[in-house]
Automatic annotation (TrEMBL):
Domain N-acetyltransferase positions: 1-152
Protein name: UPF0256 protein
Signal peptide span: none
Keywords, in A-Z order: Acyltransferase, Transferase
High-level lineage: Bacteria, Bacillati, Actinomycetota, Actinomycetes, Kitasatosporales
Chain positions recorded as acetyl-CoA binding sites: 82-84, 90-95, 118-119
Keyword Acyltransferase: yes
PROSITE patterns: GNAT
Native source species: Streptomyces violascens
Active site: 123, 406
Domain of life: Bacteria
Amino acid sequence: MEIRPTTDQDLDLFVDTLHAAFGRFPEPPKEGSTGWWSALEMDRNLFAVAADGRPVGTAGAYSFELTLPGEILVPAAGVTAVGVLPSHRRQGVLSAMMRHQLTELRARGEVLSVLLASEALIYRRFGYGPATYTRRLTVPRHRGVLADPRAGAPADGPTTGSVEVLRRAECGEILEEVYDRYRRAQPGAVSRPHRWWALGAGQPPVSTAPRYVAVHRDAEGIADGYASYSVGEAETLTVDETIAIDDSVFTALARFVLGHDLVAQVVFKHVPPEHPLRWQLADFRAGEVSGDTDWLWVRLLDVPRALISRGWFTDGELVLDVDDPFLGEHGRYLLTVRDGKADCVRTGREPDLSLDVSDLGSVYLGGTAPSTLVRAGHIRAHRPGAATLADALFRAERPPHCLHWF
């Protein structure tokens, strides 16, 4: 078997091979858009090729920016389109592709890779750990009143700014600008390159599928948030995503969709686990949580460089003993944080924490507390207080969240 890079001429074969791996057929793009695969970067994709020259596996990567704690932007490979034909599974094809890909990413100088895991059991063994989480919130419209906690009564008074309803086809530039502003300040968010918007490659509202968009504008008329939505069966209004520069904008958009006429319930598809919306409901029980799941998985390719790259909010030092069994690597690192900056060097000191590189990926963005993984048996703490200090060190200024599909 050979692992080889793909070219632009391989696009159709790549798409067909990937779909065959999942037992599906490519769906024709909707009018006005292209297939999601039009955003693939063919110079970053791989084929696993059998002895007869036929592709039996695929793996790809997008060129993203990932926002780290401290509003720091770093390049990150968005791993995607990974599949092996059913006839060649459990023969080492996937492991060979993933090992080849990680080697290539390192050669490009990238320190992080990220992905959305189709199955949770697959990617941990390649060093990825779940790092952001999302959930669905369903609110019956007749119980969807937002309360003013200062007055203890429903808040129906005027708000700063305004909301305008547009069609998706009318506001692509607005969506792109608002999302880019939002993602630069949101830990865990990834960039949406312009070509994605231009091609309509992705899920709504990146795709040009028919949607209404509630665009929020501030007092100066500048767009600072949006909610992409549609009304479907059972009089359900489904919000694809709500993008807001701050909580007040999110509240204004939530109030708008919760007040929509002739719908029975409103479904917010992507809500961060600790988002305050449920607490803003006058009836706390009106918000039904479901679909609580992982989203973005993180893999550190260079432990010291990755730890130095993010922002920090507590001073301290930890010795981390990190095992990377997939790449056959092991390292012990002294992490020292002072005044929001980190230094990370190899050390021979006794470790404070021992952990797998996948668990380091899980805690890296601040969305998973190290102490949780200690209690779960994933991380081993070697001295009292080590997990508590790790919790303080790895926290982010706000919970990481990612809602971009790739």
